[in-house]
Input
Amino acid sequence: MFSAKKKTFETNHARGVHAEELAAEYLKKIGFKILASRYKTKFGEIDLIIQKGELLCFVEVKARPNKSEALESVTARARGRIEKSALFFLSENPEKMDCDMRFDVVVITGGEEITHLDNAWEATIY
Output
């Protein structure tokens, strides 16, 4: 039983990594520089941290069968985790504090269709 769950986890993990790679490729094509991927803190993980000029974005990537399922999976708890991790990133990179910042979501659906929701939510912690 344990090995079956592990195999499913590896499959889900591989799907997530693939979705993050697709999102990174897309974001690079539209002019963003990837500063970090899978940025881990004690609060959680940010899938991608990207920058274009003076704009710094913290990106959550979701691979789901459809957009509504993907968006529903970005819960208030997940947003809070990402916001806390973003503050941690800024504490480690104080030179980025003067950048404009936003939280984006990139959704990968079906046949690798990409939807980029810029400024998907406003931070609730400061």
The beta strands are 33-40, 45-52, 55-64, 100-109, 113-121. The helical segments are 2-29, 67-72, 76-92.
